[in-house]
């Protein structure tokens, strides 16, 4: 009888609301798969004037273009990750004149960047609010066509990269994200939506 009473007491304690609550994951501490790869696409806005970018007279510039990214990262805690990403920040067409109004020039400037970022994360159940800051190596490729010849020029620079976004994990291995990112010298605001695969 004494043995039965002890077993009954253990069963009752084990079924108590307090013990049951302790077995549930706390807010923001759901198990995370540490590695992820992802891709996204969106739109970019170049925050430079046509004359500043090209040096041409009477210059015009398309300042909105399609942008995309591929990236991968290691989430080594629920609140932090390291991420490496490639960003194609768009190809921006321009037109202007050189030698006064005499020579018509058409061309494009393509922006791309590879960046390594530290990501800070606030997890709330299946939603992550995150911000990033890091280092990027960027390139702006110019191609200009005049009446007699074609010119090409590459501008490479090291710069800071930063951004912020939201990510929703809708399945154990899959998440969707929306993000704003920017590099401080190349000056393209990129707005991206995409998907991550976790493993």
What does this entry look like structurally?
The protein is mostly beta strands and 199 residues long. The protein has one domain: Porin (Beta Barrel), CATH 2.40.160. It has helices at residues 2-14, 17-23, 50-54; strands at residues 35-46, 57-61, 64-77, 80-98, 103-124, 127-145, 150-171, 174-183, 188-198. The chain has an eight-stranded antiparallel beta barrel with strand order 1-3-4-5-6-7-8-9. The longest helix is centred in the N-terminal third of the chain and has 13 residues, at 2-14. It is elongated, with a radius of gyration of 26 Å. The protein starts with a helix and ends with a strand.
Kindly list the characteristics that best describe this protein.
199 residues; elongated; Porin; disordered N terminus; mainly beta
């Amino acid at each position: 009888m004494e043995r039965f009473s002890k077993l009954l007491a253990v069963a009752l304690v084990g079924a108590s609301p307090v013990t049951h609550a302790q077995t549930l994951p706390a807010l923001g501490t759901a198990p995370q798969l540490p590695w992820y790869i992802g891709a996204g696409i969106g739109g970019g806005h170049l925050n430079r004037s046509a004359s500043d970018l090209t040096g041409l007279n009477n210059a015009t510039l398309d300042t909105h273009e399609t942008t995309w990214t591929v990236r991968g990262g290691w989430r080594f805690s629920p609140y932090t990750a390291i991420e490496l990403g490639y960003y194609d920040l768009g190809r921006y067409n321009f037109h202007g004149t050189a030698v006064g109004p005499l020579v018509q020039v058409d061309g494009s400037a393509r922006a791309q960047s590879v960046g390594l970022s530290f990501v800070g994360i606030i997890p709330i159940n299946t939603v992550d609010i995150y911000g990033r800051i890091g280092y990027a190596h960027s390139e702006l490729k110019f191609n200009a066509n005049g009446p007699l010849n074609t010119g090409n020029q590459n501008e490479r620079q090291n710069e800071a990269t930063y951004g912020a976004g939201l990510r929703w994990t809708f399945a154990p291995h899959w998440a969707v994200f929306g993000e704003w990112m920017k590099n401080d010298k190349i000056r393209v605001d990129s707005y991206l939506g995409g998907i991550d695969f976790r493993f």
